[in-house]
């Protein structure tokens, strides 16, 4: 992309972020772990914002039942690896963004190596076991981690900045049980992903105030937002001394 095209493409946000902020986005590498309902929407808007490199991590293939919420996957993509389909579409959408596709599951053995490649991590996962693994690696490697989770018409979001506030492990001392095949209205993860991207862009560009230590709760049934203050646990197994 020429400088002229770059200035045009980001014209409507350059005054918000400043040229320097936009440059910081261009040099940033963001990992989206889990490219489902949250991750599809998040990666699309990270690419729109001009994040220089996006690393997609997901081992799964596209199924018909994904299509009510995972908007980067269409009928023609059924059976293909999600990260490959997403990488292709995102590259076409914004060729100025480099997409890396990693068709793997995060495990205790690989999580630190994967997280070490990113400047910031977006939680697009659907289970707490993996979330807490990623949280732990982010705390250890001091990478900002933007958590979100959804079910039905409800969602939650919290920003973890290691050293500056509580981590995800402080929030849930024990992982809540994983429940297979939750019901989810597609609009719910999309909404929560937009909050994650807002926070990611702010942190990377250095504008605004991230929601550190604040669990933001969304209830679509009642169309209500609320929040809970989260404290750092001194004896947290992840971020405690
Ligand atoms: Zn903690």
CATH superfamily: NAD(P)-binding Rossmann-like Domain
CATH arch. level architecture: 3-Layer(aba) Sandwich
Could you say what the CATH topology is called? Rossmann fold
Summarize the amount of helix as a percent range. Answer: 25-40%
Averaged pLDDT, please?
A: 96
* Poorly predicted parts: none
* Span of the ends, CA to CA: 46 Å
Bound molecules: zinc ion
Describe the largest sheet. Answer: 8 strands, mixed
Radius of gyration: 17 Å
Kindly describe this structure.
By secondary structure, this protein is of the alpha/beta class. The chain has a single domain (18-229), classed as Rossmann fold. It has 8 helices and 8 strands. The chain has helices spanning 3-9, 14-26, 37-49, 82-93, 111-115, 128-141, 168-171, 187-205, and strands at 29-33, 53-57, 98-102, 120-123, 145-151, 154-160, 214-219, 224-229. Strands 3-2-1-4-5-6-7-8 form an 8-stranded mixed sheet, with helices on both faces. Strand 7 and strand 8 (224-229) form a beta hairpin. Helix 2 (14-26) packs across helix 8 and helix 3 packs parallel to helix 8 (187-205). The mean pLDDT is 96. Bound molecules: zinc ion. Zinc ion binds next to helix 7.
